[in-house]
Design goal:
Ribosomal Protein S5, domain 2; mRNA 3'-UTR AU-rich region binding; six-stranded mixed β-sheet; Exosome complex component RRP43; 5 helices; about 280 residues; elongated; alpha+beta
């Protein structure tokens, strides 16, 4: 495994399994904790912790008030940021965000935009005067591959946990008044779920790759779908090309994975909702 890691892997792949005992199409154990019970970020307006095998990601959403942009007076903002601190894996260094963290942040921003999971108009409080800004900080605590799937899952779970207080503008003073006793959940219009694949030797597809599998792969691809089976995003940063048939196979598997993840989120939310 140390001297010839690729040959070591190929021996397993020929038998349609992987060194960790999984089949090629099998995901690692997935768990999600939502809200304060997740020992997450207690100061956040919504939070979630997702584990995908050993990969552990936490997402905290902080809501702040701001003036909307001049060219989109009726819209709020969603600002995602992915952090890969040096404590999550040896490959990452402390300091400003590296290339991988920046690419992940951009991917999350694209998913939010393409899936229309939240309509930015829903974040507007008073046209041209006041809107919500949602700062979505996604921090990797333990990195073992497939960061994107875990990040999208944690983001969705955290947003579903957000409760925004009622805000009105006092007509006499022109100042905003926040009613912390009356809170409403965010309107989540779509539920995007990411499913990632590693491509081995240009032809073989395996789902939910570990860090070691990503390093040995000849390419990766991430498919994002919503609950209607709609394709929200295909993220393929170079590497081996995919045939149309292979890509269709990935999309079909991503739709199945979406149902599993949605079921898991719904189950957790139901368990923490006061009876």
């Amino acid at each position: 495994r140390t001297v010839e890691p690729l040959e070591y892997y190929r021996r397993f792949l020929k038998e349609n399994c992987r060194p960790d005992g999984r089949e090629l199409g099998e995901f690692r154990t997935t768990t999600v904790n939502i809200g304060k019970c997740s020992c997450s970020i207690t100061t956040a307006d919504g939070s979630a912790l997702v584990k995908l095998g050993n990969t552990t990601v936490i997402c905290g959403v902080k809501a702040e008030l701001a003036a909307p942009a001049v060219d989109s007076a009726n819209k709020g903002y969603i600002v995602p940021n992915v952090e890969l601190p040096s404590l999550c894996a040896e490959r990452f260094r402390s300091g400003p965000p590296g290339e991988e963290a920046q690419a992940a942040s951009q991917f999350i921003a694209d998913v939010i935009e393409n899936s229309q999971m939240i309509a930015k108009e829903d974040l507007c409080i008073a046209n041209g005067k006041l809107a919500w800004v949602l700062y979505c900080d996604i921090i990797c605590l333990d990195y073992d591959g497939n960061l994107l799937d875990a990040s999208v899952f944690a983001l969705l779970a955290a947003l579903k946990n957000v409760q925004l207080p009622l805000v009105t503008i006092n007509e006499e003073t022109g100042l905003s008044e926040v009613n912390l006793k009356q809170k409403n959940p965010l309107i989540i219009r779509k539920h995007p779920v990411a499913t990632s694949f590693a491509i081995f030797d240009d032809t073989l597809l395996i789902v939910d790759p570990t860090a070691e599998e990503e390093d040995l792969a000849t390419g990766t691809v991430t498919i994002v779908t919503d609950e209607e089976g709609r394709l929200c995003s295909v993220h393929k940063p170079g590497g081996s090309p995919l045939t149309g048939a292979k890509l269709q196979d990935c999309i079909t598997r991503a739709i199945t994975r979406h149902k599993e993840v949605k079921k898991l989120i719904d189950k957790v939310i139901k368990s923490i909702t006061p009876k």
